[in-house]
Predict the structure.
Amino acid sequence: MVADLGHATKHLVVHIHLILDKLTYPGWKDIRNLVNVHSFYWIHEGRGTFLTNTEYRVQAGMLAYLRPGLEMSMRSDPEAPLRMTMVLFDCAELVYEAVWKDVMPIGKLNLPFLSQYGDTQAEEFDAWFREINQSWTARIADGSSVPESQLQLLLNKLQHSKAPDWNIGESGVFASYEKIKHTLESSYKENLRIEQLAKTHNISPSYLRKMFLKHTGMGPKQYLDHIRNRQACGYLVFTDYPINQVAKLCGYFEEYHFSKMFKQHNGMSPSHYRITKRAETAQ
């Protein structure tokens, strides 16, 4: 999903169709029947094969994310049948900008098709999926709000945790992109240089830009400006920090440069934005 390009706040909402503890048998085969929803397959035990247009070997500690529309067949190894938690769900973003606005269904999450995690992360995700499955089983008495809330937290963790130990396709450059993206998000106050970050993580600036455009819809410098602008908007509305301090907190060393960039992003000066948005919030 393309990241938020404006100052609106988006809220992820999910609707679960089905959660199933899928215990297979030696030589088991199946196809993905419901292809119009998002799907997770977390592999607790065993080994097998997932087949789309390419054949992938899978095993315990792997997570498969299937976007809507993707067809897939599966089979278990005869000597080590798969046991998986399957989650079928829809998700959307609600936009909040002083008032609730648009609902935008998400066509594809920013997750790789297949990821494998090391022992510590695998144990953590294993527990997550078991707990979500247990909450789903208990929904007759408790309703579906608990597993759906757990799934929202899991989605956030998957998209913001450190890069998985391995993922198919673009494995090296994707890991570099994820590390640089995390640096921009966590160290935006610092004097960051995109070219230096690319060199540090062994990826060319041109390919880094390609990865950012693919996964966020923005180049890395534009993404950094977006992060800084989003933080600045929050400081202006919810704190009384003077403009020059907001500038420094958001990585700008000159108030003039900050004000110029802010006006380009938001169509008004920081002081005007503060007055306007506080008035809207008070209504």
Notes: The chain has a mean pLDDT of 86. The CA atoms of residues 199 and 205 lie 8 Å apart. The first helix runs from residue 119 to 137. The first strand starts at residue 9 and ends at 23.
